[in-house]
Amino acid sequence: MSASLALSLLLRLGAASLVFTLVAGMLMAARRPLRARLGASAVYALWLMAPLGLALCCWPPHRASAPMPGFSIVIGAAGGADPASIPAAAAGTGLAQRALLAWLLGAAVSAAVLLLRQRASWRALGPLRPGPDGTWLSLRPDAGPLLAGLPRPRIVLPAGFADRYDPAEQAAVLAHERLHARRGDLWWNALAALLGCLLWFHPLAGPARRRYLADQELACDSAVLGSGLVSPRVYGKALLKTFTTASLPVGCGMQAISPIKERIMHLNDHRTSRRGRLTAATLACFTFAGAGLGWAATGEPAGAPQSGGYRLALDLSVDGGAVRHEEVLTQGTHRLTGLRNGEGQDCVADLALSDDAGGAVDVRVRLECDGKPAGAPRLIAKFGEPVTIAVGRTEKRPDGSYVTAKGFRLNMRVDRA
Known about the structure:
Blueprint: H1 3-38, H2 40-46, H3 49-58, E1 71-75, H4 85-124, E2 128-130, E3 136-138, E4 146-148, E5 154-157, H5 161-164, H6 167-183, H7 185-198, H8 205-226, H9 232-241, E6 252-253, H10 260-265, H11 274-298, E7 310-318, E8 324-330, E9 333-340, E10 346-355, E11 361-369, E12 372-375, E13 378-381, E14 386-396, E15 402-416
Parallel strand pairs: 3-5
Antiparallel strand pairs: 1-14, 2-3, 4-5, 4-6, 7-8, 7-15, 9-10, 10-11, 11-12, 11-13, 14-15
Helix pairs in contact: 1-2, 1-3, 1-4, 1-8, 2-8, 2-11, 3-11, 4-7, 6-8, 6-9, 7-8
């Protein structure tokens, strides 16, 4: 993976981590007062802001603007670049590559552990046999009730389900799990588990996922009781009879995550007002719009004015040789040939010029060495001011100036044609 791509991905990961910190922190801190005001279902819906914000941080990708290793770019006097900037740039991009590799390794390990736990937990349920109304019965008395299995979710009931629960309580349990299935909660839990793997390093990832699952169960309780088909008394008795110890990392257990005391206390608070739903939808829309504006602000302006043409004054030196001077007129693109990098490979550079929104010139360079992409630095400079690009090994002369002894050195000035 190229250093510029690694740096770009690392910056995006940092932005996504910041968005997750803000959204998850806000919801974790305000979930209880919001639930009292808006209802459990509205608070559960607000958790959707986290994946939406992360998606806006990562898609679509912006164009990279970081210099590649081995490039020394100076905007200003054409006397040259400090050679110390070359190893510093290489060290910075190398650090970005190592950090990105560490993140990828951590995400892969987290995903592998999650899959192994899911497989082990599913096997721990024991053999399943068909039960009533499309359910499945386990041989374990503590396995369920729960909804598990993707892509085809199954309702798993514990052994002795018909003996432990009376008919009204059985109806309450089945209504709870079927509501999970209708709402696709198992898929949302899989997405939450995936985000946990990607944000394995984040201290809020685990606590936020637990709060999210707790709010999911409270929202399901509220929706079942709000239907009027189950009384709070019957529902509470069914909860108290559920002593599930078997749970799956990606599953919907009736009592696997949410504290039983909290759920019992909210059995009579299952009203979800229209005002609460509208307030939750408004908050989610504002969050989505704010994240979208933040994403748009980090991109390059799509409507930047284009100039009719440019005059390039180029002073090029290859391997410390004589300086070659040329002036060219271009509508925005120019190719330089006969270049070499610090390893002696033949290179070509494509210069793409356009007017920057701030009244400067935007110069994007695409360097290829031996037919392979070698870098894509970008410069923003004022018209008429010299710009220096050095690739390779730069040395200091006795007079204080610098020369690129191995590679090439380009002094460039851009004016309007």
